[in-house]
Description:
Layout: E1 6-15, E2 23-33, E3 38-42, H1 49-56, E4 64-69, E5 72-73, H2 79-89, E6 90-93, H3 105-116, H4 120-133, H5 149-161, E7 167-171, H6 179-196, E8 199-203, H7 207-211, E9 215-220, E10 223-224
Parallel strand pairs: 3-8, 3-9, 6-7, 7-8
Antiparallel strand pairs: 1-2, 1-4, 4-5, 9-10
The protein binds adenosine-5'-triphosphate (ATP) and magnesium ion.
Adenosine-5'-triphosphate is lined by residues 15, 23, 25, 43, 45-51.
Amino acid sequence: MNNGEIVCKDLYKIYNAGMPTECRAVNGVNITIGMGEHTSLIGPSGSGKSTLLNLISCLDSPTKGDVYIEGVGISGLSGLEKAKLRREKLGFIFQQFNLIPTMTAAENIELPMRFRGTGGAERKKKVAELMNLVELEGKENNRPSELSGGQQQRVAIARALANNPQIILADEPTGALDQKTGETIMDLLRKLNKEENKTLVIVTHDPKIAKTAPRTIKIVDGKIH
Ligand SMILES: Nc1ncnc2c1ncn2[C@@H]1O[C@H](COP(=O)(O)OP(=O)(O)OP(=O)(O)O)[C@@H](O)[C@H]1O
Ligand SMILES: [Mg+2]
């Protein structure tokens, strides 16, 4: 019964350990983010927000400690097992969208389903459903360069949702957007949290955005405050 739960236990990420340039980007973090929780992750530039989110999303490995996704410790997983967990349980949204420029909106959204081995008919149906959810009908065949920033981020959200993950992690998802467009992106993310009970962790610099989450986690110098 721990669907969508994230636990960080005694978590460290130390760069250049033991050297004069040592940097404790994540310095002994213990947090539990419950199923369906909406949490903002805030802190000054360089405080470890992206590092922590990358550890939670298995994009990076901790120096010490572990992250448990739905009760499973990720440090014990093989590369393939981590890839499977990422594909099936986690949706990640980046500040700079990170779409594949040579692929259309529909192909970008379809890609995680291809990696998972989902059949063609089902992929097509899901792409249509997701294009509708993010209100981008008619833009299926546009490449990222033929979309506005907000539209690109909506494609990225649809892509993150393609395999129906229970957990959505976003690193400054509105950072590259103007305020109004950022608000529509946040509305969409909040809707996913409210209506589908998805666990939502959002890194943000913007106090206004942080305030809209019921819970805020603050990190300073790699430690939770
Ligand atoms: N590969 C690396 N090697 C050495 N130090 C690193 C590396 N990656 C990050 N750091 C350091 O880790 C610290 C935390 O960086 P991180 O990117 O997590 O900060 P952040 O809170 O996301 O900042 P911002 O708000 O500017 O995005 C910084 O001091 C950074 O210089
Ligand atoms: Mg960052």
